[in-house]
Amino acid sequence: QPRPEAAHGGANGATAEAGIVRRAMVRHAQLVLDMTDSARQPDYRPRRFEFAVEAAGRFAERFLAENPLAELGLCVLRGGTSEVAAPLVSSSKDFEEHLLRAAAGGPRGRASLVSGLLRATAGLEDTPGYGTREVLVLFASLSNWDPVETPIEGVLAPLQEKRIRVSVVSMSPEMHVLRRVCTQTGGSYAVALDGSHFEELLSGHVPAPTCGPRALAPKLIRMGFPRQVFEVAGLAACSCHLRLQSQLFVCPQCHARVCKVPSRCHACQLPLASAPLIARSYRHLLPLPPFVPAGEVDAGAEGREARCCGCQLLGPWSRACPACGGRFCEACDEFTHDALQQCPGCLEAGKGPAGA
């Protein structure tokens, strides 16, 4: 069976998006994880439960690394209801701790989609309107068990009013109710064929989604850039975890100390960031265009040996940057698009990032 491509491809599989699109730099997302009896199935090794927990941890690490201004929370479907396992956090380490603590309870009971969506909505309703609100459901069940007094229609209206986008990546066959929720909230729905395809589908939710017509107009966002201090006289406690630290960041508004950036000041709720984080968040707005066959840049380059602009190895490399003409091997082509997001040849030539 042919495998569908992930929502956002890599270097060679990617295609340049047509026209100019607006993407969100500030994202607020809730991950809803199915920890019901259906997660005991062994078709994903060792079981769906362990596989989904590990995949969720890897997704959170990459999501928060590539979206430094984003926040990610966790809700768990278990026992016919839903529980908040983690509030919105901007640290993958904090998220991992909450995830492992929730996984210690094991899978049990049946899944209630309505309960999960209500919990996720409650966790997102106080987030500022200038950021996106997203819910990503990792579903493993074959059925949905919702309370009679709370039909799905009663949840769809609040989701649409609060501009919450719901997407689902499922390990089970397609369900109409899931497809309906995703369609009416502007999200996506996909069923994984196997473990590797599941990881591909999850990776498609790492880049920021395009802003729809109902998104709020851009405006200035209040944000603080804290000063880093080293406590030489003695350890000091951070305001976020009340743990003794030797290296802290001082909020420029209330002078409270936090242990990491990005974060939100626990005293005055000011979002805290740094210039490098802003630069990292900005790069998905101007993605590096796909490299083209070398013959399209230089008619005589096809088949001729040249040094790779990335690793400097000599070879008949067939891919070239359309802006600077630099040649790249397959490994550097993939690394440049998936991780670096900038062309080394353009930077060396002083042309700035390709596509800018």
UniProtKB/TrEMBL annotation:
GO BP, sorted A to Z: DNA-templated transcription; nucleotide-excision repair; regulation of transcription by RNA polymerase II
UniProt-recorded Gene Ontology molecular function terms: zinc ion binding
SMART domains the UniProt entry points to: C1_4, VWA
Superkingdom of origin: Eukaryota
Residues covered by the VWFA domain: 28-203
Cellular location(s): Nucleus
GO cellular component annotations of the record: transcription factor TFIIH core complex; transcription factor TFIIH holo complex
Keywords, ordered alphabetically: DNA damage, DNA repair, Metal-binding, Nucleus, Transcription, Transcription regulation, Zinc, Zinc-finger
Domain TFIIH C1-like: 264-348
PANTHER family: GENERAL TRANSCRIPTION FACTOR IIH SUBUNIT 2, GENERAL TRANSCRIPTION FACTOR IIH SUBUNIT 2-RELATED
Sequence similarity: Belongs to the GTF2H2 family.
Record-given protein name: General transcription factor IIH subunit 2
Lineage start: Eukaryota, Sar, Alveolata, Dinophyceae, Gonyaulacales
